[in-house]
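Figure 6 in text form: structure in, sequence out.
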């Protein structure tokens, strides 16, 4: 009876709107739920459960179920991941899965990125994303915020995907981060993708105290220098020398000494006097703390260089004021 339906819809007072937030449990709900199971939880524990689940009823249920059985309140990654897989992922078409895995490289992302990535399919994909559990959308900013539970699940799925697809996801993420000024995340994304050409295209400064997927910047620098061929390094001589000096700045002095000989050979093939001067400037660290020895290399750098250094940067603390926090 469409006539009756129309009249009912026209009278909005008779319609009850239910949003996703109405289906989530707040701290009070979690407390009452726990009491029904015979659990008296302190406020701190309730807040902890809410922060891990954001009130997602199924996840809260797993937490409390574990506690009633005498186990920790954290249901563990396997149980939560299985829940997401059965409740949502299994029903998601391959196209939707690939879209979600593109978001796995970000803590948050916006409509602009999706429009760049998917073009004419954007409207259809946006409608799909608005229905994904644990993915919050802010219409004011056009940003998507995957919950930590969902993000962890998506990253595991991405890690198990085809290598070429996975590399493509992180490569595209790296380019987005680089073009939007987030060098740290750009470097981490390119490193994860195994794309050293793109990594060397980044401005490798101010990264000494960052970590990248569980390794330090000093370790990353050593790995990239070892894995890159001379031809690739020759296309990015400034980044090559910045990676070398990162070894010294991070306290890997023996690695720095070994690494500095190869860049000199690479630069000599370029017939670039300025870059050779840059090499002398960086290699002066080899003479530290012999001020006289360092001065000799600085003078040679001054003779060869045709302008200000492109390798040194005030954001790297060991260039100015102190050569290395660890050495001193």
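Output sequence:
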């Amino acid at each position: 009876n469409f006539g009756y339906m129309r009249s009912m819809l026209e009278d909005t007072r008779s319609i009850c709107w239910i949003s996703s937030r109405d289906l989530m449990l707040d701290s009070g709900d979690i407390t009452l739920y726990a009491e029904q199971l015979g659990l008296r939880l302190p406020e701190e524990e309730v807040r902890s459960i809410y922060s891990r689940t954001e009130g997602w009823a199924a996840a809260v249920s797993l937490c409390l179920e574990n506690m009633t059985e005498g186990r920790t309140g954290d249901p563990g990654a396997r149980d939560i991941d299985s829940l997401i897989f059965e409740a949502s992922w299994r029903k998601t078409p391959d196209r939707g899965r690939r879209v979600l895995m593109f978001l796995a490289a970000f803590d948050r992302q916006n409509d602009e990125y999706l429009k760049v990535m998917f073009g004419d399919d954007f409207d259809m994909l946006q409608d799909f994303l608005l229905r994904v559990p644990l993915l919050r959308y802010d219409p004011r900013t056009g940003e998507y915020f995957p919950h930590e539970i969902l993000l962890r699940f998506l990253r595991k799925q991405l890690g198990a995907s085809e290598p070429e697809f996975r590399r493509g996801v992180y490569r595209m993420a790296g380019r987005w981060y680089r073009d939007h000024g987030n060098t740290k995340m750009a470097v981490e994304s390119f490193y994860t993708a195994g794309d050293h050409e793109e990594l060397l295209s980044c401005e490798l400064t101010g990264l000494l105290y960052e970590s990248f997927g569980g390794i330090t910047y000093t370790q990353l620098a050593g790995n990239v220098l070892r894995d890159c061929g001379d031809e690739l390094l020759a296309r990015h001589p400034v980044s090559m020398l910045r990676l070398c000096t990162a070894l010294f700045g991070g306290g890997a002095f023996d690695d720095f000494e070994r690494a500095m000989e190869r860049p000199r050979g690479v630069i000599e093939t370029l017939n670039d006097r300025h870059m050779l001067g840059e090499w002398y400037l960086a290699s002066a660290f080899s003479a530290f703390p012999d001020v006289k020895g360092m001065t000799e290399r600085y003078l040679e750098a001054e003779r060869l260089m045709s302008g200000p250094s492109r390798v040194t940067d005030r954001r790297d603390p060991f260039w100015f004021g102190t050569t290395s926090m660890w050495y001193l």
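Caption detail: The longest strand covers residues 135-138.
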